[in-house]
Design goal:
By secondary structure, the protein is mainly alpha-helical. The protein is about 50% helix and about 10% strand. The chain has five helices and two strands, in the order αββαααα. The protein has a two-stranded antiparallel ribbon with strand order 1-2. The protein is globular, with a radius of gyration of 15 Å.
Length: about 80
């Protein structure tokens, strides 16, 4: 059996119905599998209409941790 490519591995991960996977930038979720949409309480239509605000999903008490994580991500981007 041939090993899967990174793209094939991610496609399998994305398609698993029990594991939520979302792709986002600092503000918007721009793609998500059905499991992630169920966990977040949104529909695919809301996703298509860009109605899922990543920042608004974060409870206020966790916002500082999110910001620190984003800062670390920005530093690690080459």
């Amino acid at each position: 059996m041939e090993p899967l490519s990174l793209q094939e591995s991610f496609a399998q991960l994305y398609q698993r119905s029990d594991l939520g996977v979302a792709l986002a930038d600092e503000n918007q979720i721009f793609d998500a599998n059905d499991a992630a949409l169920r966990m977040l309480g949104f529909t695919r239509e809301e996703l298509r209409e860009n109605k899922i605000d990543w920042v608004a999903l974060t409870p206020a008490e966790f916002a500082p941790m999110d910001e620190r994580g984003l800062q670390q991500d920005r530093k690690s981007v080459v």
